[in-house]
Design a protein that fits this description.
DNA polymerase, domain 1, 243 residues, 5-stranded mixed sheet, alpha+beta, Double Stranded RNA Binding Domain
Length: 243
């Protein structure tokens, strides 16, 4: 069914007795309204705007939003913007799905515990666990790995240094180095957005001075090589106290 979608038309539209049906907009190609049958939670039936398009011959459907949260005018304008993205070679529906399925910092930390920690001594496993706690606390366990950037690592180091723990600050960032290096490695048997958890390590451009009281973390110490500027700790390595 094709019809010029308007507020008046949608208000008067009767939902199907079961399932759903599509009503195509005559004004914008691919723009449509899906009308769902009534349910206990929504006796009037749900109405959802969407846009269909093709990428390499494969049809994609991008859900814009539900009416009346989205007006017809707003939904059609959004559909036009999505269509422009498609014309530029993008695949908005796939991008949204990958974004939704993208792993979080908690996922990366769990992978680190599963793949990296078993090879370490009990004390090192304890220390790494404490440092992972600092990383997740400052960056956020629900934060998507792909969203973590260089400034987050700078803020993490500065916060620990300002709290009077410069040695711990360097060790935590060194742990973050190993953590994000792991994110660059594909997971065994996995493909897609979760196979490689991060496109790049967010703190690769920085280096720190030796881990001694008063040591700093400065923009002047930029390194051209990821993390290799982090020098061994001058102070003896001691167990890390739990936060």
């Amino acid at each position: 069914m094709a019809e010029r979608l308007t507020e008046t038309f949608i208000k008067a539209l009767q939902p199907p007795p079961r399932g759903s049906r599509l009503i195509w907009d005559t004004e914008l190609t691919g723009f449509a309204l899906r009308v769902f049958a009534p349910s206990k939670t929504c006796p009037a039936g749900v109405r959802t705007f969407l846009l269909t398009y093709r990428v390499n011959g494969t049809e994609r459907r991008y859900r814009i939003g539900s009416w009346p949260d989205w007006s017809v005018i707003a939904a059609r304008a959004e559909a036009k913007e999505i269509r422009q993205r498609v014309d530029r070679g993008e695949d908005p529906a796939s991008d949204r799905r990958e974004r939704r399925e993208a792993p979080t910092m908690a996922d990366l930390a769990e992978r680190y515990r599963r793949e990296h920690l078993p090879r370490k001594s009990p004390q090192s496993r304890h220390d790494d666990g404490v440092m992972l706690g600092h990383i997740l606390k400052h960056i956020g366990s629900d934060r998507r790995v792909a969203d973590v950037h260089h400034g987050d690592i700078v803020a993490l180091h500065r916060a620990l240094t300002d709290s009077g723990r410069p040695v711990l600050a360097n060790r935590v960032v060194a742990c973050a180095s190993r953590l994000f290096s792991l994110s660059l490695k594909p997971m065994a048997g996995r493909t897609g957005p979760g196979a490689m958890l991060s496109p790049a390590t967010p703190a690769g451009a920085w280096s720190a001075t030796r881990s001694r009281p008063g040591s700093g973390f400065s923009a002047r110490s930029r390194s051209r090589r990821w993390w290799r500027g982090w020098t061994p700790m001058a102070a003896p390595r001691r167990p890390i106290a739990s936060a």
